[in-house]
Every structure is written in C-alpha cells, then in structure tokens.
C-alpha cells in the first residue's frame, strides 16, 4: 500500500531539523499542516519566519509541482498559488527525501470561512477566484484539482488563495489530479481534457458545496441531479443561471462567468429588496467579535447603504402608486 | 516499455508504447501457477503488473494482502488496497502512476547512458530535474498505452462487479483525455468454460463493456496465476499480428524494466 509507506517515510516529529543537501538551508519543523496523495506539508521555521515545507517520497511529484510554481512566478500579478522559496533534498535516516519550501498561507479554508463569516462572502470570494483563474488560464494552465480544501482565505483583507498545485495541468493535456465531486467527468458532464471550462465546472461545484457542506453522493448523476440540488437551496437559486451554465461548460473564459455572476448578484440586490441571506449574514458579522477591524467596518457601511437604498425604493414605489391612484380617480370622475 | 528510436538523439523524439496489466481482485489465488512468478514473467517482457485489492466492509486477509503486494512488486507495478466506493479514483490513479513509473525508468536509463552509470533523476540538482520532468510529462501525455484488465469474478466479487464496471468506464474517460492512443482489453477469471475468458478484445473504447458486464457469472475458484499467463499471450499475439502486417519488428528496441 503506497499511501501507507509514503506517510511513514515522510512523517517527521516537530523539532526535527531538515537540512538541504544542495543549498544547506536549515528548517525546523513546527507541526504538520496536512497531507495529500503526493506528500505531507509541514509548518517550519526558517530564520525566524514561518514557511510551509512539502515533503514527498515521490521526488518526481515534487519536481512537477515545483515546475508549476516556477511558471506561476512568471505570471505577473498572480497571487493564486503560494510563492516558491526553495527546492532541495534531505538526507534523512530513512533515505533521501525531496522537498520544497513555499510561502506559508495562513487562514481558514473556504468552507469554514463562509461558515463563520456568513454566506454573503461566497460571491465575493468566488469573484476573486474567477479573476485569478483567468490569469492562470491566459498563461496556458488549468488548475485541475480545485476544491474548498485547497482554497485558503487569508486576512486581514479577505483574499482567496490556492495551496495545492498538484493538479495543475497544461491546457490540452489530460487532467493530472482531481477530486470526484468537483470533476465534470465523474458527473458525466464532459471529458478530463484540461480546458478553462474544466475549472469553471469545479467553481460551480464549489458554489453548490457551500450550500451542501457535507457534499452528496452521485445517484442518477448528470445535470438532473445537480439541478435538483440547486433547486432545494435558496442561495443557489439566486445564481442558478450562472451555476447551470458553468456545469454545462458554456463558459470558455473565467471572466465571462465572473461578469455574469457579478451582474446577477447586483441585479438581485436592487430588484429583490427582501434579500434575506445577505442581511442575515451581515448580522452574523456584527455578532462575531473575532472579525478583523477593517472588513467589519466595510461590511457595516455596506449594509447601511443597502438599507438606505431599500427605503428609497419603497418611497419611490409608494409615491408612484399614490399619484397613479389620484390620476385614476380623476379619470373616473371625468368619465362619469 | 518498447522504445522506437527515430532519427535524432533527443528524448522527446522517442515514441514508445507502455503495456500494463491491471488486476482487480479481492483475495488470494487458489488455483494454478504462482501469480507472483507469472508477474515476474510479465516484467521480463516489459509489461508491468498493477494490482488493486477491493475490500467491502470485510478486510482482506494477511495472505491475500501479501500476495497483492508481491504481484505488484515482482511485476514492476503499483498496488493499492481500497474500499469498493473509492475504486474509480484509485483505478485511474494507479494506472497513471504506473505509467509515469515506467516512463521514469526509461528516462533514468537514458540518463545513465548520457551521464554515466549511477546517475538517476534523483542525483541531478533540483534545478535540472525540472527539465527532465517536462520530458516525463510530455511522454505520459503522448505515449501509446495498452492496458489489459483482469477482473476476478470469483463468488465473493459478485456484488462488487457493478462498481468495477463504473471504475473501468471512468478509467477510459481519464485515459482518453490524453493525446496518445489507448488500447484496452478485458479478461475475467474464472470464465464460463475456462479458467480465464476474454470478454473484450483490444479496442480503444471501453464503453462496450456495459452490456457484457451485466451478463457475467461468477464462479468459485480464483486462478490468478493462469489469468496473468493468458494475459501475456494476448499481448504477444497482438504484437506478432502487427509485425506481420507492417513487417518492421526490427525497428523496435526492446527494453525490459
């Protein structure tokens, strides 16, 4: 069983000092951050700063991920993945282990962030994600294994970041790594060839996932089951049009999906004054004392404006109705 | 892996073919030759043997586990024990992993020829490895792949067969996303009349499995060894047929793993 052996070989205790064979940098392991199919990620200390260190039995998967991170670095203004700091080998007493060191991205994962801060954040973060994906796609890549566990929200200004680039694939090739729930092939809605629409399908599934934090199993599969899941959730119904289009692979660019999502949510807010979920969640934000200062202020100002907008609307409508009523009375009188 | 050497010395100029046996089973063999020896025989012919052990609630016994690992080890492949629910994701992952492993083996041998005896990818400085990895990735995307799937249809596998079918369709979805060509063939053991029975001849499409799988009957014995041996002869007859048609068998450069 390969997973087993991999976990054993790369398993190191906190306090272990890892010295690179080629660059002789010294890293002190602080704790385990997580593990996946390709290795274990540790939080480590390097010259008084905290870094994330990924180790793997499979040196080639490390090399492959380093290749991706290197090409990310060439993309101007992209903050999607972590920045690469060092690549090296460690001669442990269990043999040579390859590792790379990257920036430590701190924060809760997407689903726990939305759970504590409220559903209003879903759209904001998805819009951010689509922007970053667009840059990635423009440079010829597809992220591949997009899922909430791989998405971290950092602060103090909430910003979405991706932490695992193991699935990142050149466009036109077969997707390297995926997770069934977010994979269009699994749902019978497309191939596993890397194209921008593959990532956008995963984004749609992530949105669905925010309403179903425990996910769900494939029963009938296909668009029918997914549409049914959407129809049962109010938050999803509001943006159903965009989700379904992404599930069908109708968007070939992330920005296309972004602008439609943006116009849909802004339209919703003006035509649907009783938009319960957003007011609800901003209340949550008020109650939560742990929230950072700046987003809270931004949030409250936003709500204030929204309420003001709402009352203005009611005012306009009532005046119109009143005048119309007077006019009808006038006509009625004239006719008689 | 067979490597055809074309003009020019660069690795990316090589076109090759990867051949794998994928064995899906849930326990120990109990009839015929030793499957571990048969797997070693496959490796000698440049065919790797990967094994997936399918559990349900029950756990595979120690003996079955040892055999599964033994077959993969002597067959130069990958093994994994999984619960039936995770089968789809595992089948495609094991196949890809084994493919990369084979390519790495070939690339490593090329490196040794260029750089000297004991050099492997791991001995290169990390900066240089990146370029080698690009070659490995490129080959994994374009190489021709032949997968012979051996499905254990002993009685205990009966209720797992629908899941196996799903997993195989999922595998063809993953592999057909590549640029390179794929050929699949499916055998079951025990068969209706013989120990091993071919249910799908070499084809690029696995979809035709759907109808065949629902008609499968299960039997009592598990002749894993004979199944691997039959699989080998299927690879061989395929090759001889092709060389008969094209007559260019000499251009193949055999490399055992």
Number of strands of chain A: 10
Might you state the CATH topology name of the largest domain in chain A?
Transferase(Phosphotransferase), domain 1
Termini distance of chain B? 7 Å
- Tell how many strands the DSSP assignment of chain B holds: 8
When the domains of chain A are counted, the total is: 2
Mean of all residue-level pLDDT scores of chain B: 84
CATH superfamily of chain B: von Willebrand factor, type A domain
Radius of gyration of chain A: 25 Å
| Helix fraction bin of chain B | 40-55%
Taken from the alpha-carbon principal axes, the silhouette of chain B is globular
The helix/strand order of chain A is HEEEEHEEHHEEEEHHHHHHH
CATH topological fold name of chain B: Rossmann fold
* CATH class identity of chain B: Alpha Beta
Largest sheet of chain B: 8 strands, mixed
User: Number of helix segments of chain A?
Assistant: 11
Q: Determine the number of helices of chain B (DSSP H or I, runs of at least 4 residues).
A: 7
Approximate helicity band of chain A: 40-55%
Taking the alpha carbons of the first and last residues of chain A, their distance comes to: 93 Å
Q: Which regions of chain A have little confidence, pLDDT < 50, spanning 5+ residues?
A: 1-6, 270-301
What summary fits the major beta sheet of chain A?
6 strands, antiparallel
Topology of this protein?
The complex is a heterodimer of chains A (336) and B (257).
Chain A: H1 2-10, E1 17-19, E2 26-36, E3 39-46, E4 49-56, H2 59-74, E5 84-92, E6 95-103, H3 110-117, H4 120-138, E7 141-142, E8 151-154, E9 159-162, E10 169-170, H5 196-211, H6 222-231, H7 234-238, H8 240-247, H9 254-271, H10 276-287, H11 293-335
Antiparallel strand pairs in A: 1-2, 2-3, 3-4, 4-6, 5-6, 7-10, 8-9
Helix pairs in contact in A: 4-5, 4-9, 5-8, 10-11
Chain B: E1 2-4, E2 15-25, H1 35-44, E3 47-55, H2 62-74, E4 79-83, H3 87-115, H4 126-142, E5 144-152, H5 161-175, E6 182-189, E7 197-203, H6 209-214, H7 224-246, E8 252-254
Parallel strand pairs in B: 2-3, 2-5, 3-4, 5-6
Antiparallel strand pairs in B: 1-2, 1-8, 6-7
